[in-house]
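Researcher: Next entry in the queue.
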Amino acid sequence: MALIVQKYGGTSVADATRIKAVAGRVLGTQQAGNQVVVVVSARGGMTDELIALANEISASPPSRELDILLATGEQQSIALLAMALHEMGGAVVSLTGVQAGILTDSVYGKARIRGIRPDRVRQELEQGRIVIVAGFQGADEHDNITTLGRGGSDTTAVAVAVAIEADVCEIYTDVDGVYTADPRLVPNARKLERISHEEMLELASLGAGVLQSRSVEFAKKYAMPLSVRSSFTDDAGTTVCEETQAMEDMEGVTIRGAAFNKNESKVTIVGVPDQPGVAAKLFGALAKDHINVDMIVQNISHDARTDMSFTVAHADLKAAVATCEGLLGDLGAAEVIGDGSIAKVSIVGVGMRSHFGIASTMFQALAEAGINIQMISTSEIKVSVVVGAEQGEEALRVVHDAFNLGDEPDIVEEA
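Model: Structure for this entry, 415 residues:
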């Protein structure tokens, strides 16, 4: 008997027909001799609908009340799926995030899970029931309902899987696995049979929309294997697992995938004094305002002054600019410029550790396509560049082709 956590996204439970199809898949998994916990998202479009309704009522809805409202989307899904399973003769119970023991901090709209008390879930499993848990939500220490941000149901599923010591966490979505790039943008993108937690974490954080990056962080930290599959077919998906030497050396794959993110913006602070403590003051203030900063570039200093640029999520652009403008006097800087017309293109692969010339290949391909690079960021297993938004999709295809990611990987034999 295996203990399996299954997560179904909004498109998988968008209407009654799809909810019944999910119920059939879940019941079949239990009848095969497994214990099953199911985590579901709000039905497709429901969260956006609730946000639009809130904005009709208030130009600036209180964040606490907005979280209470948005949490109802997942509660509809768990109740409807439980009803479908009841109709099929299944023993089932639905639980909200609070009932499932999901504890978070108090940052409304993008709360982080602090812990899970899995007693209730385990008790229901021992009674032979299928347990359906509302994704995307929990409660803080004061019993206030919180939500985990876009894609938060992925994080819920992995966190629950870790808490109950599941054998695997299956992520069912509207795509049949993880691809070398978004197949909607790159027609020759290839589905991967397997990818390491580390590579998947980079791809997710860089814009690959299959998994939320925080969910992969959980999986990597606790060595929880993930299976990304389509909820509409029985095809094998992509396994996300711990990196092994075989994955890096024997497969000989240098670059695993390319990612594209158009939901970032650039902030530039002009005329920053080139002296100790300036960066600490600036990024400390952004962190205090819960604004995550990604790429950071500081230009060469002239006359003891420099320009400093960094990227943030597009949704945080206004807040980031406001925070920086509030610091102009303290920093002694000239002005703040916000730019929402950028895109980030990245390549990822553990093989970068042992192969040379990866960055130069990427830069040369972009140069030959006439695509200007505004910012560059690298790590041990990834290279990212910022380009103009109008050239973002072309840059993704150029980079994907430069590394032959649409072809079957060749085995690299070491001399």
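Model: The two ends are 46 Å apart (CA to CA).
Researcher: Noted, moving on.
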